[in-house]
Amino acid sequence: MQIPFENNQTYISFESLKKRFPELNLSIDYSTLKGKIQGRKKREILFRIGSFFYVYSKSLEKISRPFLHKKGKLLLPPDVVEVIFMYLTEKEVSYSFRENFIDLQISDPEKISSEKISLKNLIIDPGHGGKDPGSSDSSGVQEKDITLKTAKDLKTYLNKKYPNLNIVLTRSTDIFLELEERSEIANQVFRKKGESIYISLHCNSSLSTEPNGFEIYFLSQTPTTENARELAILENKLLSGKYSKDVMKIRASLLSSVVQRRSKKLAGFVEKGLEKQLSPKILNRGVKKADFSVLRGSLMPAILVEMGYLSNSKESKLIQKEKFRIRLLKGIAGGLHDYANAKD
Predict the structure, then answer these.
(1) Residue pair 180/239 in contact by the 8 Å Cβ criterion
(2) CA separation for the pair 148, 172 (Å, rounded)
(3) DSSP assigned state of 219
(4) Are 256 and 187 in contact (CB under 8 A)?
(5) Mean pLDDT throughout 288-308?
(6) Does residue 286 register a pLDDT over 70?
(7) Same-domain status, 74 and 150
(8) pLDDT tens digits along 51-73
(9) Alpha carbon of 134 to those of 96, 131, 169, 223, 235: distances in Å?
(10) Does residue 270 share a domain with residue 153?
(11) Could you please report the per-residue DSSP string of 67-127?
(12) Among 328, 323, 336, which Cα is nearest to 308's?
């Protein structure tokens, strides 16, 4: 099923969504230009025509393009369409933004009602490795070594705290893995052992020495900011030619609205866990979204954790301290605990 873009391939009309999802309803007060899109369980998006912001669940969110109203149609930017798929539709939606249209697959509602969130398996991915060192600080300490050390420590900590949790590392030594290999390792665990979640650990870097703080990402084809888009491009650049066909298959695959919704929820709980443990020592840069290849293709809730900036000398030293690492582990563990006990 396809829904064409409108207005120079940059918008989707509400009316075209309504045809596929009759549970969606729209109301607009043209005297104030304020409107409301309502969906399942009376969940709603509040907006104003011409605005770059909307409100969902009492949270004000910024979008890449404004809401438009032309020729009797409400035109929605892709960011808002994603939110509708994640929270307002009755059925599970798998989708992919193409050049001129959105490609859709819609599942029966029974599949959503029978789903449960359980924390049985955790796949931890230490970013980079082998010939790919990742970023480094001014003293030469490499990202690949920090992520591996942190991943091993996290596995040890969680094994003690949650003995029943099956934990798998995508790498336990200094080896190089293609980005798509990492998500495939996670998918193999998912296929064999059921419900799983996937966390990829990284350290950030900037041309400037000033940026600092941790941030959490979940997969989206509509990045939160230009910096998020550039970071995704940087992290994705190591895709090799021999995997080009596989990568094309992964990139063509449809995003699952259920997996994306749970990934965003997972990111939120881990952010809160880290905030509790690391603040005010390290800045919380929040939850963001970007098109990371290491997350794309994952069949389960997946997030990428940028633990801090190696390009910031003060923060790089902090990241490498044992006390900081323990707090980091506790923060992630707390986030996982709260996520596992939350209702979907």
Answers:
(1) yes
(2) 7
(3) E
(4) no
(5) 87
(6) yes
(7) no
(8) 999 998 888 888 889 999 999 99
(9) 29, 9, 18, 21, 9
(10) yes
(11) -EEETTEEEE-HHHHHHIIIII-SS-EEEEE-SSEEEEEE--HHHHHT------EEEEEE-
(12) 328
Given 70, 87, 112, the domain boundary residue is: 112
DSSP state of 31: T
Task: Say if residue 128 is in the same domain as residue 255.
Answer: yes
Q: Would you call the peptide bond into 22 cis, given omega within 30 degrees of 0 as the criterion? A: no
Q: How confident is the model at residue 249 (pLDDT cuts 50, 70, 90)?
A: very low
The two structure tokens encoding residue 231: 């970071």
- The string of pLDDT tens digits covering residues 224-238 is 555 654 554 455 554
The pair of structure tokens assigned to 72 is 């009797």
Distance separating alpha carbons of residues 215 and 267, to the nearest angstrom = 9
Terminal CA-to-CA distance of the chain, rounded, Å?
27
| Residue 138 confidence (pLDDT) above 90 | yes
pLDDT digit string, tens, across residues 320-337? 887 888 889 989 989 999
Query: 223: domain range?
Result: 121-340
pLDDT at 114: 30
